[in-house]
């Protein structure tokens, strides 16, 4: 067996693989991303490098279905057509933490992280069964448990970024 090779005993990181092929995105008729392809795998770090304005953020927003594509094929776990899923079902599989998020006022850290559970809430916002455990786990994973009852407007920029990340993790 080679180093890094998975065996049945190797646990798979939680999450879903997202594969994209043929991604083309245009603004005002001009392609800013043309025929891009990439695969994002659970437990791996993927780096996009390029000059300002080259389409890195546009590509990520398109993969998260926040930006429409002129053409694209998106697959979850190599088989499920991600473009055919409802927004709620898609958000149960994919989360995106963008740069430059606003600082909300009047909400605690826990409130913000609980927003990550939105795809699992029932009609009229009823709580989901695994919500509290998922939120507690996400707070712990990002090291912000001790900030849970603090107002978000009183956090540093780095703390707030960790809270937004906790919301993505709570989304599972």
Question: What does it look like?
Answer:
With 172 residues, the chain is of the alpha+beta class. The protein has two domains: 74 residues, Rossmann fold (3-Layer(aba) Sandwich), CATH 3.40.50.300; 62 residues, no CATH class. The protein is built from five helices and four strands. Strands 2-1-3-4 form a four-stranded antiparallel β-sheet. Helix 4 packs antiparallel against helix 5. The longest helix has 14 residues. The mean pLDDT is 86.
Low-confidence residue ranges: none
Shape: globular
- Distance N terminus to C terminus? 32 Å
The CATH architecture term of the largest domain is 3-Layer(aba) Sandwich
Overall number of structural domains: 2
Give the helix tally: 5
Tell me what portion of residues adopts beta-strand conformation.
15-25%
For the largest sheet, list the strands in their spatial order: 2-1-3-4
Secondary structure: number of strands = 4
Supply the CATH class of the largest domain: Alpha Beta
Characterize the largest beta sheet: strand count, sense, and whether it forms a barrel. Answer: 4 strands, antiparallel
* Average of pLDDT: 86
Element-by-element helix/strand order: EEHEEHHHH
The CATH superfamily of the largest domain is: P-loop containing nucleotide triphosphate hydrolases
Would you give the CATH topology of the largest domain? Rossmann fold
Short note summarizing the structure:
It contains five helices and four strands; from the N terminus they run E-E-H-E-E-H-H-H-H. With 172 residues, the chain is an alpha+beta fold.
């Amino acid at each position: 067996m080679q180093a890094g090779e998975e065996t049945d005993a190797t646990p798979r990181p939680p999450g879903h693989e997202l594969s994209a092929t043929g991604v083309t995105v245009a603004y005002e008729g001009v392609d800013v991303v043309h025929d891009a392809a990439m695969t994002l795998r659970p437990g791996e770090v993927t780096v996009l490098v390029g000059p300002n304005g080259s389409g890195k953020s546009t590509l990520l927003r398109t993969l998260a279905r926040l930006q429409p594509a002129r053409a694209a094929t998106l697959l979850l776990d190599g088989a499920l057509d991600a473009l055919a899923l409802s927004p709620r079902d898609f958000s149960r599989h994919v989360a995106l933490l963008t740069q430059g998020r606003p600082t909300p006022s009047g909400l605690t850290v826990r409130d913000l992280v609980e927003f990550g559970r939105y795809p699992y809430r029932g009609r009229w916002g009823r709580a989901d069964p695994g919500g509290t455990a998922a939120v507690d786990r996400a707070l712990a994973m990002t090291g912000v448990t001790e900030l849970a009852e603090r107002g978000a407007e009183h956090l540093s920029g780095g703390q707030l970024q960790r809270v937004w990340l906790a919301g993505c993790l709570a989304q599972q």
